[in-house]
Amino acid sequence: MKGKIKHITIALGICLLLAMIVLGLKNRNTIYTWFLGDVQTLYMQADSLYRQKRYEDAATLYSKLAKIDTAKRCQFILGDIYYQGKTGVRNYKKAMKLFLESADNGNADSQNNLGYMYAYGIGTDIDYSKAKKYLSLAALQGHSQAQVGLGSLYRHGWGVTKSYSEAFQLYKKAAAHDNTDAMNNLGYMYTFGYGTSTSAGDAIYWFEKSASRDNVFALFNLAVFHIEGHGYPKDLSKGAELLSRAAELNSPAAQFNLGLMYYFGKGVEKDYAKAKHLFQQASAQGHNHALEFLMKVENKEKVSETDSIYDWKLKAI
What we know:
317 residues; mainly alpha; Serine Threonine Protein Phosphatase 5, Tetratricopeptide repeat
C-alpha cells in the first residue's frame, strides 16, 4: 500500500512539474518581461542612447528588449544597427534573424529590409519569391520604399512578369508620399518611355524634385542631362556642379565622372590632384573603371579623352 501511494505521489509530482513547464513556456514572454522590470524606461533609455549615436550601448539594451516576442520595433532597430554596421561591423546574419522576427510581428520596415536583402542577395542568396512576399506585405501597409522596391521587381521582371506599367504605378504611389527614390525612378521611366510616354519635360520635373531633396541618383541623372543636353542646353559647368553634390554624397559614378572632368579640364579647371582623389574615392567603393583609370594615372600612362571612358548611364534604384 505504501509503495502504491509512493508511486502515485511521484506520478502527481511529475504531472505537476510538467504542468509548470508547459505553463512557464506558455507565459515565458510575460515572465521575461517581469524579469526585465520597467520595460518602458528601458526602451526610453535605449532610444536616447541611439539618438546620441552611442550605438554599442543602445544595442546592449535593445538586445534585452528584442527578446520580448512582441517587441517588433526593438527587433527592427537592433537588426538595423547590425545591418548598417553602426557598432563598427556589419552582421547581416544577425540582422536578418531580427528582421524576420520583427516582420512576422507585422513591422513594415523589417518587411521592406528583408525584401531588399532577398532581391539583391544582401547577406543571403537572391530569392525573388521571398523578395516579392516581404515587399508586398510592407507595400500593403503603405511603406513607400517597399512600393519602390516592388515596382523595381516589375521593372526588371525579377520573380514576376515584367510590367513597366505596374512599376510606373507603384512609383507614382510612393512619390505621392514624398519618396525621393520614387521621384527619381519616375524621371527614369519618362526618359525611356517605360510604362508611360517619353517626356523629357516630365523626366526633368521629377529629377529636379528628387535632386532638390539631395537624392544622389537624381543629382547624377540631372548632371547627365545638362552635360549631354537632354531638355537643357549643354552645360558642362552645371553638370560638374551637380556631380560634385552627388560625389559628396558618396556616389561612385559621380566621383569617377567628376574625376575625369578635372583630369581633362571639362566644365572645371584641370586639377590632377582633385582628379586622383576622386578616382581613389570611387575605386574604394568598387567602381571598376575608376580603379583602372587610377592605375593608369599612377603609372603615368597616356590617356586619351573619348566619350566611351565616361560612365553616363542613368541611375534608378
